[in-house]
Amino acid sequence: MLAANELLVNEFVKIAERKGRVLYDFTNDVITQAIRADKMGLTLKEVLDERGIVEEAKRTGFILVFKRLWYEVLDKIYEDAGKEWLIEAWNEAGRWYGKLCHSRLPEKPLTALKDGIETLMWDIEDFEISDEDGLTLLRCISAGFSKAYTMLLVVFFKGVFDALGYDVVKEEVSKGIITLTFKKRG
Question: Is residue 1 part of a domain?
Fold first, then answer.
């Protein structure tokens, strides 16, 4: 009833043995999880890819925080005396994240950036990175962003692209809408 590539089956058997599981139970468990993922509208690959990003986020210092609280705190600090400090901190975090993206996928760091942002920033309605006429365009849209959060994300993205060897050549920013155009240095 089930057929599979022999090399895959051999690897599967080794995993079951290493985990001290009976092959019958291990197989049923894996099939059950595939069915569960399907009921969620996902493939096992999507579940594992996103879990991998969440695990990497944990390892690299990301935390989950309530969106409303996050925006209110940022707005308060941004409007008061902490604006300059926040700008530098977000730029530095962006440069660090750019280096992380490069280390994850040296040949395609912008793909790593796009995947990470789309997976970790759930409130973004539209996020796109595209190449046009030797320029790289970043578009990020969310109706829920506060003005301060929008401005700080701009600084973050500039830091990311700076670390990846790009300069900003154009920016269009309004509350919840970020469009940045970059050109590769050199």
Answer: no
26/99 same-domain check: no
- pLDDT tens digits for range 119-135: 888 889 999 999 999 99
Helix (H, G, I), strand (E, B) or coil at 61: coil
Residue 170 belongs to domain with CATH number: 3.30.1380
**pLDDT > 80? residue 1:** no
Quick check: is 47 in a domain? Answer: no
Strands (E), 96-184: 126-132, 135-141, 166-174, 177-184
Instruction: Measure the CA–CA gap between 54 and 42, rounded to whole angstroms.
Output: 16
Structural domain span for residue 19:
6-41
User: CB-based contacts of 130: which residues, under 8 Å, 6+ apart?
Assistant: 136, 137
**How many Å apart are CA 156 and CA 59, to the nearest integer?**
20
Closest CA to 162 of 116, 117, 113: 113
CB-based contact 178:139 (threshold 8 Å): yes
Half-sphere exposure in the Cβ direction for 31 (13 Å, CA)? 7
Handedness of CA 142, 163, 99, 138 (dihedral sign): positive
Q: Answer for the pair 165, 186: CB distance below 8 angstroms, yes or no.
A: yes
Contact 161, 185 (CB under 8 A): no
Does 137 fall in a domain? yes
The two structure tokens encoding residue 144: 């829920």
Share of the chain above pLDDT 70, in %: 100
